[in-house]
């Protein structure tokens, strides 16, 4: 019997901070370790990801588990 493996890849883009352009954040030299904190909004990224999980990822995984 042949095994079949399903692979699903999800993608959520990083959201820029809302004050990115207005607080002179553009084109500043940033240490590599501070890059994400400086340019991207972790709270919004987390909120959007949790919402996507509840609406899409969890239900689709549940359907696959019931097959």
- Overall average residue pLDDT: 85
Number of helices: 2
**pLDDT below 50 for ≥5 consecutive residues: which ranges?**
none
What's the count of strands? 0
Rg from C-alpha positions? 18 Å
State the end-to-end distance: 18 Å
Structural class: mainly alpha
**Proportion of strand residues:** under 5%
Count of all domains: 1
Largest sheet: none
Order of helices and strands: HH
The gross shape turns out to be: elongated
Helix percentage range: 40-55%
Structure commentary:
It is built from 2 helices and no strands. It has 67 residues and is mainly alpha-helical. The two termini are 18 Å apart. The chain has one domain (12-67). The chain has helices spanning 35-39, 42-66. It is elongated.
Distinctive features:
67 residues, mainly alpha, 45% helix
Offer a quick outline of the entry:
This protein has 67 residues and is an all-alpha fold. It contains 2 helices and no strands.
Topology:
Blueprint: H1 35-39, H2 42-66
């Amino acid at each position: 019997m042949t095994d079949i493996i399903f692979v699903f890849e999800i993608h959520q883009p990083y959201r820029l901070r809302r004050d990115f352009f207005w607080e002179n954040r553009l084109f500043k030299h940033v240490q590599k370790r501070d890059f994400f904190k400086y340019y991207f909004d972790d709270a919004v990224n987390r909120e959007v990801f949790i919402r996507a999980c509840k609406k899409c990822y969890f239900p689709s995984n549940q359907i696959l588990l019931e097959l």
